Structures are given as structure tokens and as C-alpha cells.
């Protein structure tokens, strides 16, 4: 099925820190927050420490739309990764240092048979990333 009007977007649920995650990605990954709507009145099912949970947020990173919201009992991403592809090894290393800080590294940044630099990690917000500077780029 070919459908030129079809697009694929990513939606991530966060356990109370959607706004912080999106602001971090905007500041450090060159993303642009398009909108961020909070719940006007916090429903009783949200944890009391959530002062202003996000109902819906969208941002663009590298031409891809990322959507998100705060959802009680959301868990870190498993078995899916957002992949960032870099034009240089230096840029991949820089973002690796940034996203791995206070996160969990599954595969440290290194050269592989398919990439000059490749890493897999989960950042401090629970978002899983693959970072790639492939061999054809440099």
C-alpha cells in the first residue's frame, strides 16, 4: 500500500516529566516544540506531586514529529528506539555524552561494522535512543 498522504509519527508517554523531556530535547537536540497543552484541572488519578501534567505536546526533531503526554504509571520505553542519525562522529559523540548522562547505556558509543559511531541508551527521561553515524556519512 503506497499512500503519499500517510506519515509516521512517534508518541511517548511519560510518568510526569513530559514538559522537562521536551524542553531538554528542544534545547539540546535542536528540536522545536510546536505546542504543549496541560490539563486545566488535574484529574484525581494523577499523582499529587504532578503540579501541571501535560495532556498533549508535539515537537519536531530532524523532520520527524514527536508527540507526548504525562500518563500515570507510564514506564520507560522498551523494545523501541528513537534513532538519531548524525553527519559526523563528533556530533554523535557530543549527543551521546548529553543523553547518556544520568541515563542507562545498553551499548557504549563505538565503531561497528556498519557505523563509524553507534550507541544504544535510555536517557534520564526514559526515552530509548540509537545514535548512528554510519560508514557512508564520513
From TrEMBL:
SUPFAM superfamilies: Glyoxalase/Bleomycin resistance protein/Dihydroxybiphenyl dioxygenase
Residue runs in coiled coils: none
InterPro entries according to UniProt: Glyas_Bleomycin-R_OHBP_Dase (IPR029068), Glyas_Fos-R_dOase_dom (IPR004360), PhnB-like (IPR028973)
CDD domains given in the database record: PhnB_like (cd06588)
Glyoxalase/fosfomycin resistance/dioxygenase domain segment(s): 16-130
UniProt xrefs under Pfam families: Glyoxalase
UniProt superkingdom: Bacteria
Name this polypeptide is given: Glyoxalase/fosfomycin resistance/dioxygenase domain-containing protein
Organism from which the protein derives: Pelobium manganitolerans
Amino acid at each position: 500500500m503506497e499512500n503519499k498522504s500517510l506519515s509516521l509519527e512517534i508518541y511517548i508517554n511519560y510518568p510526569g516529566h513530559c514538559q522537562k523531556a521536551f524542553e531538554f530535547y528542544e534545547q539540546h537536540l535542536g528540536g522545536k516544540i510546536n505546542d504543549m497543552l496541560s490539563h486545566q484541572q488535574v484529574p484525581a488519578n494523577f499523582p499529587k506531586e504532578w503540579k501541571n501534567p501535560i495532556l498533549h505536546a508535539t515537537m519536531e526533531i530532524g523532520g520527524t514529529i514527536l508527540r507526548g503526554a504525562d500518563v500515570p504509571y507510564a514506564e520507560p520505553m522498551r523494545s523501541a528506539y528513537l534513532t538519531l542519525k548524525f553527519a559526523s562522529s563528533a556530533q554523535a559523540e557530543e549527543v551521546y555524552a548529553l543523553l547518556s548522562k544520568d541515563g542507562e547505556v545498553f551499548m557504549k558509543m563505538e565503531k561497528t561494522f556498519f557505523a563509524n559511531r553507534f550507541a544504544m541508551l535510555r536517557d534520564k527521561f526514559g526515552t530509548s535512543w540509537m545514535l548512528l553515524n554510519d560508514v557512508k556519512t564520513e
